[in-house]
Design goal:
This protein is of the alpha+beta class and 223 residues long. The chain is built from 7 helices and 8 strands. 32% of the residues lie in helices and 20% in strands. Helix 1 packs across helix 4, helix 2 packs antiparallel against helix 4 and helix 3 packs across helix 4. The termini are far apart. About 2% of the residues have low confidence.
Length: 223
């Protein structure tokens, strides 16, 4: 049974340029993983695990072209980084009638790989993306970035989601060492704020943008 939401919630239910909840493949994926489930909480949990584990986390391929940041692109590629995967989860939630929005924060990765630190020249990951879902009268955060296989490889507990409590990055790894720390909150948005995203990337990683114009251009950085 569909729920009725006040007018101010419509922007969290409608498709946007990046959160393409009306894309046929997004709708198909969302319905496939929520078939037979009755409540929004059950559907949200199922979609979280589907997005978290069906798509490999890959922070080494970042394409900032507008068309490459759409939720449906993750379905095509089979992998994505945090922003892309959060975007897909939001799109799937909206596709089955669950209000969803995107949240962003800068995080400090205390156990980052040498490879990624070498590329970024920093252990700060800017504009880490997660999804916020409206469930049982409140916004709940869910970060589907790290797939289970990756967590097992690095011996880090996977982030689980129960539909009631925030599920964000792990504070500690399996041995009790500090893993992730949120250092700046950028707030919540009804669609991906691409220009703000790029501005934050430029501010922290200027070397990745040397001689590159990303205004509508297809720009990638990779190892």
């Amino acid at each position: 049974m569909s729920q009725t939401y006040p007018p101010e919630f419509q922007k969290f239910l409608q498709p946007t340029f990046f959160i393409g909840s009306d894309h046929p493949e997004v709708i198909e994926f969302a319905k496939k993983h929520t078939q037979g489930l009755a409540t929004d909480k059950e559907k949200a949990v199922a979609l979280y695990y589907a997005v978290r584990d069906s798509f490999r986390y890959d922070p080494y391929h970042v394409d900032l072209h507008p068309d490459k940041l759409k939720a449906s692109v993750v379905l095509k590629h089979g992998f994505g980084y945090c922003v892309e995967k959060a975007n897909l989860l939001a799109a799937c939630a909206r596709a089955v009638g669950i209000p969803a929005r995107l949240g962003f924060a800068n995080v400090k990765n205390h156990l980052s790989t040498e490879k990624l630190i070498r590329i970024l020249r920093s252990d700060i990951f800017v504009f880490h993306g997660y999804t916020e879902l409206w469930l049982e009268g409140k916004w709940v955060k869910a970060s589907p970035a790290f797939n289970l296989g990756l967590c097992e490889k690095f011996e880090v507990p996977a982030v689980d989601f129960n539909g009631m409590d925030d599920a964000v990055f792990q504070q500690f790894d399996g041995e009790g060492r500090q893993f992730m720390e949120y250092v700046k909150d950028h707030g919540s948005f009804d669609d991906l704020p691409r220009e703000q995203f790029i501005a934050e990337l430029r501010a922290f990683y200027p070397h990745l943008f040397e001689g590159v114009d990303v205004g509508g251009m297809n720009y990638k950085w990779e190892a």
